[in-house]
Amino acid sequence: MPFAVEAQNLKKFYNGFQAVAGVNFRINRGECFGILGPNGAGKTTLVEMIYCFLPVSEGRLTVLGDNVVEEPRSIKKRLGVVPQENNLDLELTVRENLLVYASYYDISKPVARERADQLLHFFGLSSKANQEVDRISGGMKRRLTIARGLIHTPEILILDEPTTGLDPQSRRMIWEHLRQLKKRGLTLVLTTHYMDEAGQLCDNLIIMNRGEILEEGSPSDLIRRQVGEKVIEAEVNPSKREHLLDNLSALTCETQVSGDTVYIFIPEDETAVVDLLKNNRELDTYRVRPSTLEDVFLKLTGRGLDYADAEEFAGREYQAL
Questions:
Q1: Are 161 and 194 in contact (CB under 8 A)?
Q2: Which range marks the domain in which residue 132 is found?
Q3: Who has the most CB within 10 Å: 19, 34, 134, 318?
Q4: Interhelix angle for 293-301 vs 219-226, to 10°?
Q5: Which tens digits make up the pLDDT trace of 230-264?
Q6: Buried (b) or exposed (e) across 28-59, using 16+ Cβ within 10 A?
Q7: pLDDT in tens, 36-74
Q8: CB-based contacts of 151: which residues, under 8 Å, 6+ apart?
């Protein structure tokens, strides 16, 4: 059986600007696959090629065994897409949004009504079925957008930044719905700049920056391979930083500096490093915490996900359109 998605040396150019730079990856059927990175990393461009919205510039991309260049119409019928922005019809009711969308796939009215009711129940929207969309909450709109992407029973559901702008309770509710969908065998492709979201949902993932793939693997494997189980954050005056870094180097610790914070990556036992920090009078404060995917990104790029350069990169990408 072919992979759900397979990319080989995949590239995308906008007027000579390379937004996706020759990436290679495979997505297994039935898994949640994450595409991570800051705004402007190329995540949305990548998924838009997967669901045949953007043409491929170079390389090969197959979805469910079909080439996106040769069989785009066949592929689109088998995919569900949840875009970054809710593009619901605000003048229609919650149920009508699902029924109208079902008509685009030539689903009979009785089947469409049955599927709509099932999805409304699954996403906890049954009590809002007859309410106009512009009168429900942002979290409910997001759940409805996901439900709409499922009305034609797709084999892959693509979610582009599904929880951006939502409150923590709404985010966790959507996470639980996505877990249930994966348990039913649906393949999920998720783009996000929330590392905690990827850690909660993804079986495997790629981390992108400037159109390139920096790393790939499962969340736990990436953390263990790149930064170890624990990270120490040390706040130190910049004038005293070099002395601390020299001492840490003697302990063969990998470090990364961001602002006034020195991140110390501990592959195994942190005792020696903690003893060093305790005896360092020039140190303001420090804390030991579990490692996260964001630490992986920081180590790989030397900056956090909110780095301002990402906004400039995104501006160049979309201006080229």
A1: no
A2: 5-223
A3: 34
A4: 50
A5: 898 888 877 778 888 887 887 777 888 887 888 98
A6: eeebbbbbbbbbbbbbbbbbbbbbbebebeeb
A7: 988 888 999 999 999 999 999 999 999 999 999 999 999
A8: 98, 101, 102, 105, 107, 112, 115, 116, 119
